[in-house]
Amino acid sequence: MSTTGLDRRSRRRQQTIDEILDVSVALMETEGVAALSLSAVARQLGMRPPSLYQYFPSKLAIYDALFQRGSAQIRDAQREARARAPQDQELERGMVAFSRWCMDNQVLTQLLFWRTVPGFTPSPEAFAPAEDMVNDLRSYLQQAVDKGRLHQDATSDEGIALFTSLTAGVLSQQMANEPQATYETGRYMKLMPTVLDMFYLHYRPTRGKEK
Amino acid sequence: MSTTGLDRRSRRRQQTIDEILDVSVALMETEGVAALSLSAVARQLGMRPPSLYQYFPSKLAIYDALFQRGSAQIRDAQREARARAPQDQELERGMVAFSRWCMDNQVLTQLLFWRTVPGFTPSPEAFAPAEDMVNDLRSYLQQAVDKGRLHQDATSDEGIALFTSLTAGVLSQQMANEPQATYETGRYMKLMPTVLDMFYLHYRPTRGKEK
DNA sequence: GTCTATAACGCGATAGAC
DNA sequence: GTCTATCGCGTTATAGAC
Lengths: 211, 211
Hints:
The structure is a homodimer.
Chain A: H1 3-31, H2 38-44, H3 59-84, H4 90-104, H5 106-113, H6 124-146, H7 157-177, H8 192-202
Helix pairs in contact in A: 1-2, 3-4, 3-5, 3-6, 7-8
Chain A binds a DNA duplex through residues 9, 13, 16, 37-39, 47-51, 53-54, 58-59.
């Protein structure tokens, strides 16, 4: 039993796991997030439903794996966009990357931000990347504070809640009312830069006292 | 067969319909919106599942009736709050009434604003009150414009989209992250007045050009 | 050990006959 | 209003193939 044999086997196993997740997302796109059917997944893969249990202990475990995958992806999409961003545009570029990813991955977005699947709550491991996202946001807001572009209050819990509410609002309106649109064509998505401006205006550095 | 007999029968029928809807909401509260089970509804009412089909042709028809009920209720809640509001506070009071209703009726709110039930789309009749809501909003924004409290652009499609995005954002963050809270205690709900201020600031009448 | 299959249980939505 | 029946679901048990 060579080590390459073990590698090959576990590589093949990982490949199957990825296929299950991909097929699940595809089915949820057409049937609805809460309507995922393991039988349908198995059919697509040429398996019988019980075989799926070799890879996931339950249907909720598939949702959890998708949550983890999604939260890591959207965190990284923002990180990469910010890393490439010109000076002082990290917040905006991160927001654009966030929006674009959400529109391109609406099934995962529903899972991440709406939590409407009966009985499903993300495990701590699956949730960790989502916490990274908030911490990233806070540190970039702090940078803007340090440069005198935002009031200190912007990094408070209220500031974070306001920032995420503004983006979540545009996003949820877009997804509920025009789900077939893209980031570029969405009627609501056009408001993303607007609400960022509003945030900067609300937490402007020191033209009088805040609040 | 007297007419009062007919009345009594149809009144009894309407009563059963209302009971079915009430029980459905209660079950969705504990099990999840998409997990509504007709068998469970029937059990609660001391019926057999097929009997429900005397009142609703399908499970989706129950969702549709709930959508209609909900959209009419939330429209009326706002109308009553605005009718009681002091001069120039109609917008704010309507927004508060909206928020409070949503937190008190989260199941219906999910149905109305997230549309995550597989296969369900509201019928035109069920959707009509939701359209009233937007028209109401536009007319109160127009009043504020007429009084010089808002820029004319606030009543544009973009203005309406911005207003609804701001409120939907606070709401969706609250429901996703702290669903057990009330309007009074919610960490995000506290931002409702804030985002209204931001809207007024963004569409301030004429301190320089808009946008 | 690893993967897959078949059989079976209990539950659900729904159609039709009574 | 009911009972019966069909179908699909998630899941478990179990047994055979690689």
